[in-house]
Amino acid sequence: MVSYVDVPKPSGFLGDKVPADLSAEQISKIAQSFLDRFNSAVTKSDAAAFDALFADGESFWRDTISFTSDFRSIGKINILQAATDRLSVAKAGNAKLSTPAPSVERPFPDVSFVQVFFTFDCAIGSGIAIAKLIPGPSDEYLAWVLYTTLDAVEGYPERAYAARLRGTHNTTYSYDEHLAEQIENPEPAVLIVGGGHNGLEISARLKAMGIKSLVIDTYKRIGDNWRLRYKSLSLHDPVWSNHLVYLPFAATWPIWTPSGKLANFLEYYADALELSVWSETSLVTSETYFDESKKQWIATLNRKGKKVNFSVSHIVMATGIGGGHPKFPPAFPGQDKFSKPILHSSSHQQGGNWKGKTALVVGACTSAHDISLDFFNNGADITMLQRSPTYVMSVEKGVPTVNPYTENVDTWTMDLLSESNPKYVGRLYHKRFVPIIKEHDKELLSGLKKAGFKLYDGMDECGFFINTNSRSGGYYYDTGCSPHIVNGDIKIKGSEIDHFDEDTVYFKDGTTSKPDIIVMATGYTGFKDTIKDVLGEKYAAQFKEFWGLDKEGELYGTCRDIGIPQCFYVVGPLSGARWNSKIVALQIIAEREGKLGKRYSIDVQEGK
């Protein structure tokens, strides 16, 4: 076995090699030729022929589940071994061109490729692929990126759109009676912990594929995870990227969604899609465990004080991207003597309670900006304490540059395209985007610098991209706060707290402040604490590394093996939930059917 070689971050694109004058007929021939070679390689389990599909140098095979039963972005240097190990297992074949039709794409003036969508069959079911092809040394086009992903498990069609259920006529019971029976007696095969957008969409996907689930949430109402946060909160991504699976937002929906409006929509979503959701319900940790002999989770729920027991094949954790508990900095000297309130951002409700008062917000990322602006809009004297630099881009100019979704776009196709690039390739895109956005936002950024706000280009000079995938922080999409920093309405202090006394905060630069309230916008403790709270110490000890990027640039943990049997942890924004919900539902079904098999992880390829 050839040893696994860590995939280096690519130094650049393979270049602009696709002729500008290719005809539609030539593009189709290029696409079909690649499919013929792909079909031949996979049906014969010919690893060398499969490896030969890829351009030399920094080319990639990204697979989600269909060939590897894992999330992999395999660099050219490791493709031959991976193909040797997995082609005979995957049993792929029957590749056919799909829609959209093959096309030449030019994301940048010096970058081009022929893009090909196709479907294929595999041992688990059926898949979808996207190939991004460039000319090889001969007349053949080779893959710069090949993306393969599971799309369906055999025997479990997704009953939606043209394949939707027929419905019934002339029933002997009312619709409300039917719905009440379903909710009160759910008979779940899967238990989903968390009733936010991820939990609800996974439930919707499973239902469409014929698998019953129950969503539980500790809040009183569906949507309270948004409804009960600070009143000024709104989404920072446009509506056309945030549509929920099967039920998009209305055509009159505002571009920027208020949190309360989203909360009400989630409640409506659960009702319209007839999802079984139990509010004010939690797992009884001490009475919930995985039975190894039965390969089932024995779960005890506390529903409004009454215990209910279920045996389910899988538990899905969908408890939000924060992870764990509100995180405060270690207590500063004298902090216990400070007489004014010190809150975490998760406890902030509205700035209107502090009109005419002085507020200090510790932190300089999204929540800190939102809360600072809320204080200012409600008449408070507000200072933001910035301890480290922040990447800032505007929603008017920055977001459209990096967000590929637009009005009337087919979200499913765009989701596939968004997933098709390995994170290392995404890194190259975002390194190109950053200077473009800086030029668009140069007046705003110049003003922030003059105000003393510390800016940077993000980790690895990739803007928010690596930040969000590595630490889920360190950036802000400006929705209105930054101009108030520029003009001095919101003051910036670039220092750190040194100590307190009864009414004063002393900073390390020797200055002081006497705030009436302090809000710590300092993040959360981590996902392991959530596992500990919900499933207990035993499973927290088994919990693998979560979030951040592995050696191939894939996210640790989310939607993947987390070290806990038959348990998934799903986090991410609304735009990611459409994809995450499907790929998790497919894995659950494949595992229930004994088709998922052993995951071909990096460790397995390394022979560990």
Write down the overall geometry.
globular
- Estimated helix fraction: 25-40%
* Annotated CATH homologous superfamily of the largest domain: FAD/NAD(P)-binding domain
Q: Segments where pLDDT lies below 50 for 5+ residues?
A: none
- What is the straight-line distance between the termini? 12 Å
The number of helical elements comes to 19
Main sheet properties:
7 strands, mixed
Level-1 CATH class name of the largest domain: Alpha Beta
Count of domains: 3
| CATH topological fold name of the largest domain | FAD/NAD(P)-binding domain
Tell how many strands the DSSP assignment holds.
Answer: 26
CATH architecture title of the largest domain? 3-Layer(bba) Sandwich
What value does the average pLDDT take? 94
Proportion of strand residues:
15-25%
Estimated structural class: alpha/beta
| Radius of gyration of CA atoms, rounded to a whole number | 26 Å
Describe this structure in words.
This protein has 19 helices and 26 strands. β1 and β2 (71-75) form a beta hairpin. The longest helix is centred in the first third of the chain and has 20 residues, at 24-43. It is globular. The chain folds into three domains: 24-153, Nuclear Transport Factor 2, Chain: A (Roll); 181-244 and 257-323 and 525-593, 3-Layer(bba) Sandwich (FAD/NAD(P)-binding domain), CATH 3.50.50; 335-520, FAD/NAD(P)-binding domain (3-Layer(bba) Sandwich), CATH 3.50.50. By secondary structure, it is α/β, with parallel strands linked by helices. The strands form six sheets. Strands 1, 2, 3, 4, 5, 6 and 7 form a seven-stranded mixed beta sheet that branches. Strands 10-9-8-15-26 form a five-stranded parallel beta sheet, with helices on one face. α5 (197-208) packs across α18 and α11 (411-420) crosses α18 (574-592). It starts with 23 loop residues before the first helix and ends with a helix.
